[in-house]
């Protein structure tokens, strides 16, 4: 999949809503629920194991695409996947990760 294919119909979310969701994400990172997610030690996308401190929070549906900071939309993500995913929808990014892993 070409990395640009996912941006064909991309319309950024409202900046005020994005800021509100970023504040919610900071609160969510302090919750026991998030600590439990990190405790599993696995990246949602590449499925590799990591120390919890090496994982970051990623929004499956990016905030910039209207995603919310909620339990159903936030997942642990390794730094490498987070760096590459940017504002991709999760389905597109996971397909790209699987394609790249198949080439290794």
Question: What are the SSEs and their pairings?
Answer:
Layout: H1 15-29, H2 32-39, E1 55-59, E2 74-78, H3 79-85, H4 90-102
Query: What is the beta-strand fraction?
Result: 5-15%
How many separate domains? Answer: 1
Mean pLDDT: 88
List the helices and strands in order: HHEEHH
Low-confidence stretches: none
Q: What's the architecture, going by CATH?
A: Orthogonal Bundle
Give the termini distance in whole angstroms: 16 Å
- The structural class is mainly alpha
Largest sheet: 2 strands, antiparallel
Radius of gyration: 14 Å
Shape: flat
Might you state the CATH topology name?
Answer: DNA Binding (I), subunit A
What is the CATH first-level class name? Mainly Alpha
> Helix segment count?
4
Domain HNH nuclease: 32-83
Pfam families: HNH_5 (PF14279)
InterPro entries: HNH_5 (IPR029471), HNH_nuc (IPR003615), NA-targeting_endonuclease (IPR052892)
Protein name: HNH nuclease
Would you kindly provide a brief summary of this structure?
Residues 32-83 form the HNH nuclease domain. This protein has 104 residues and is mainly α.
Task: Explain this structure.
This protein is mainly α and 104 residues long. The chain has one domain: DNA Binding (I), subunit A (Orthogonal Bundle), CATH 1.10.30. The chain has 4 helices and 2 strands, in the order ααββαα. The protein has a two-stranded antiparallel sheet with strand order 1-2. The mean pLDDT is 88.
């Amino acid at each position: 999949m070409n990395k640009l294919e996912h941006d064909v119909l991309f319309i950024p979310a409202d900046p005020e809503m994005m800021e509100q969701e970023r504040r919610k994400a900071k609160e969510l990172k302090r919750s026991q629920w998030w600590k439990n997610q990190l405790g599993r030690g696995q990246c949602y996308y590449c499925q590799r194991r990591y120390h919890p401190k090496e994982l970051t929070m990623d929004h499956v549906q990016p905030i910039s695409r209207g995603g919310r900071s909620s339990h159903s939309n936030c997942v642990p993500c390794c730094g490498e996947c987070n760096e590459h995913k940017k504002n991709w929808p999760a389905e597109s990014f996971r397909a790209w990760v699987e394609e790249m892993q198949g080439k290794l």
